[in-house]
Every structure is written in structure tokens, then in C-alpha cells.
Amino acid sequence: MSLQDSLTTLLAPAVENAGFFLEQVQITNPGNHQILTCIVDGPKPLSLDEVTVVSRLISELLDETELIEGAFTLEVSSPGVDRPLTQRRHWEKNVTRVIAMVMNDGSELTARLTELRESDATFVENIKGRMKTHTIVLADIKKAQTQVEFSRKDEN
């Protein structure tokens, strides 16, 4: 088992028991130093206080293990907006957001996710002010990513 897999096995249960999800563990070695980056998510966007709680939890677990030798820097962060939507909970968290998608057939669609069901979803595409509704089977989506919106007309 790789170091990354061993750390994931160690950390994931504790992070999940605290109400969060361990999305990814990355280890980089710039020079003589190791940087351990843990990407953590929650059912809603994480606050700074929540990141601090999870960071302390992970730090305590790492202090008790011998998986990492020597000095290292621990970085705990939430996923960026460029994180691909790969799990159902990613989709659930982004209902009402604009999603850019590449389909299995190579076609592309950027539209607002308005409804999520078991195996498909409804998206509304804005084509020069005219709205077009699409129902798409989730298995037909090869890649999906949330788009940044600086101002939404439907929000106050």
C-alpha cells in the first residue's frame, strides 16, 4: 500500500466521523521537506472554523502515527471551484449552480442544474435570454465542473 493510500485509510474514518469528507490526500516533496495536503469537503461549503477543527483532528492523528518520518507541513483545504463533479454528493451540493459538462459523445453543455434525480438531472441552458430545458442521464456525462458566477440575477 502506498503512503498516500495508508494516510487515506488512517484519516478518512476520523474525518467522516466529524461530519466531513476526505476528498484527497496529496504528498509532495520539495527539497528535503514533505508537504501533506488534505482536501476536505462537507455537506455545505466549509467555514474557516470547520477547516480549523478538521486540521487539528488530522494533526492529532498524524502525531500518533509513524507513517510520515521527519518534518512535514500539513495543509488542510476545501476543494476549489475547479474540482470536477465526480460523486453524487458533489452534484447534490451544486443544485442551482451553472455546470459545464462534456458528454461521453464529446458534445458540451453549460447549463444550470435545477433538479437532480436518481439517474438523471434537469438543466436549464440560457441561449441569449431564451431558456432551454435538458434532461440528461448522469451516466452520459464524462466530465462536469461548476462554473463561477459573480452575480446571479435571481439572487438579492
TrEMBL record:
Segments forming domain Ribosome maturation factor RimP C-terminal: 85-150
Any matching Pfam family: RimP_N
Residue ranges annotated for the Ribosome maturation factor RimP N-terminal domain, each copy included: 10-82
InterPro entries: Ribosome_maturation_RimP, RimP_C, RimP_N, RimP_N_sf
One cellular-component annotation, GO: cytosol
SUPFAM superfamilies, per database record: YhbC-like, N-terminal domain
Keywords tagged on the record: Cytoplasm, Ribosome biogenesis
Coiled-coil annotated spans: none
GO biological process: ribosomal small subunit assembly; translation
PANTHER family named in the record: RIBOSOME MATURATION FACTOR RIMP
Name listed for the protein in its UniProt record: Unannotated protein
Organism: freshwater metagenome
